[in-house]
Design goal:
Layout: H1 4-17, E1 26-34, H2 39-44, E2 49-57, E3 60-68, E4 76-81, E5 90-98, E6 102-109, H3 112-119, E7 123-128, E8 137-140
Antiparallel strand pairs: 1-2, 1-8, 2-3, 3-6, 4-5, 4-7, 5-6, 7-8
Length: 149
């Protein structure tokens, strides 16, 4: 009869070898609205808007969205990390197709800390250009609201 210690070792080895269940993808959405700017600039962006969906599968974040209504063309789209309402560092550059209107796409491999930011709703997408490097449109990735019945 094997000893309790031997049985424990066999059990631990069996658990370690067992495949982990796949994690279900997690989705967040963002509504892109004019970034905080002075009143005169805000009027120029009053008709600008957009939306983004980001899906986390494992550590891969896939971003897709669209924007419209910019009077000044967007030059780049970026993914940032910060608490809602604050500005934070760039984590990745996203692909931008279009100038005054277009699409945003990208695939980013997140670190463990960045995955935590995603789950805590501390990631945001921002569009900017040379005249407005601090952002034209911005939106935090949040859990989508459940549809109303």
């Amino acid at each position: 009869m094997p000893s309790p210690r031997a049985l424990t070792c066999v059990l631990l080895v069996a658990l370690a070898a067992a495949p982990l269940p796949a994690q279900a993808p997690e989705t967040r959405t963002a509504r892109l609205t004019p970034a905080p700017l002075e009143a005169a600039t805000f009027e120029q962006l009053a008709d600008a808007s957009g939306s983004v969906t980001a899906t986390l599968t494992g550590t891969t974040l896939t971003v897709a969205g669209a924007f419209t209504g910019l009077r000044a063309p967007a030059a780049s789209a970026t993914l940032h990390a910060a608490e809602p309402g604050l500005r934070g560092p760039v984590l990745a550059t996203l692909a931008l197709d279009g100038a005054a209107a277009g699409t945003i796409t990208g695939e980013v491999t997140l670190t463990g800390v960045q995955t935590g930011y995603f789950r805590d709703e501390w990631l945001y997408v921002q569009l900017q250009n040379d005249d407005y490097p601090d952002g034209l449109l911005r939106g935090w990735l949040v859990v989508p609201e459940a549809p109303t019945p």
